[in-house]
Amino acid sequence: MPSLTLTPLPGFPMVQTGDDLARLILDALGRAQLALEDGDILVLAQKIVSKAEGRWVNLAAVQPSPRAEALAVEIEKDARLVELVLQESRAVLRTRPGTIIVEHRLGFVCANAGIDHSNVAGDGSNQEEWVLLLPQDPDGSARSLRQQLEEASGKRLGVQIIDSHGRAWRVGVVGATIGLSGLPGLVDLRGQPDLFGYTLRITLIAAADELAAAASLVMGQAAEGTPVVHVRGFPYPLCEGQLGELIRPKEQDLFR
Amino acid sequence: MPSLTLTPLPGFPMVQTGDDLARLILDALGRAQLALEDGDILVLAQKIVSKAEGRWVNLAAVQPSPRAEALAVEIEKDARLVELVLQESRAVLRTRPGTIIVEHRLGFVCANAGIDHSNVAGDGSNQEEWVLLLPQDPDGSARSLRQQLEEASGKRLGVQIIDSHGRAWRVGVVGATIGLSGLPGLVDLRGQPDLFGYTLRITLIAAADELAAAASLVMGQAAEGTPVVHVRGFPYPLCEGQLGELIRPKEQDLFR
Lengths: 256, 256
Known about the structure:
Chain A is an alpha+beta fold.
């Protein structure tokens, strides 16, 4: 039976700016006695990629714009953080106390531009003053990591970077793709027959987001100790995908 | 290492009205040589539950209301199908050609009230004329199945019923919970400290939906042959959950 198996890699170290993530992942796989095979996928929490890339910002150095100041008062949030959210976004969709729902510069819709105070720490400075932005180019980060891991292992792999996103109509966050390489974002089954010979209709599957949710489930939120999940048994052929596949074009979006 | 393993059960038969799903699942587990253990979860595609419950409607017997007739012209869809969509829904949120996005009577937002022509067949009649509604009470169906499976196995189990839902801002469908029993819908980590002693913020996790997406990934869409997925290693304690946990109250929903 073709099972899908997701294994969080134990004992992953705290990631520092400049760390070699490929090396850390290979070490963690070694400790877990997991040998990479063709078709395996590594799913990474956004935070370790951002940390390795040094995406820290010191709030003390942020000068809020008048727009950020006004919005900060309205939603009762730190104006410097609001300024960063605006800088990282293309558009503000909605606001409510404590939350700004934006179209991120990377294209997806998320809360507070993916910037979070919790579970992050600056490099020895006052932690409360530092925040962590999303990676500059998550698809690029995933591609680079995939290439390094493929070179080291000699295997055909996928790499995915995920974050936790809220949903429009449902409570709670789920894992969602913010960057990928070596696996499809969407799988298009349109035109294929079903068991009765009809043509399938609902058949554009957000396979990467389904995998992101699955991996998020075993990563947990509190446990920064397991920010990397090894996946075996992804049921679709690997191919080069990108985040853009998963983003609904604004003009086709009925819910803005 | 605590892996999460999802195994689609092979050789599941075509489900007919009145079939004993618990029996079919136990048979399928037996064929797969999978012995149930405490904490295991069975995830079921909505279609087999609806079929077992005989949720077929013959379109030829449906009399569209004037409202359905008008909407059908507007979105170029069968007026009888539109009538059923409206009957199964509390509110219409948006429409576009071929699609009505509704608040289903069960509470969640989905396209066309989860009614689909594809990959379903009536009981020997002209297939094109028959459509399949969602189960009457998916939480209740899950509860009943869980009780039967627990009684047969002597183990503490979870049962989840899923469908494929679109998302507001992202392309493609993902598995989503429409009924559950024996596992939490949401996991609330609020108030728990992170690695740095801060209090976690984004910590209301839609664990059941993450599991639904994971299971959907291995079910596929075309493969009605694997509408049941066995899950081992769900990382949160089992408890009695319900669909309602996952539904955002209308008054807190910024995207209607």
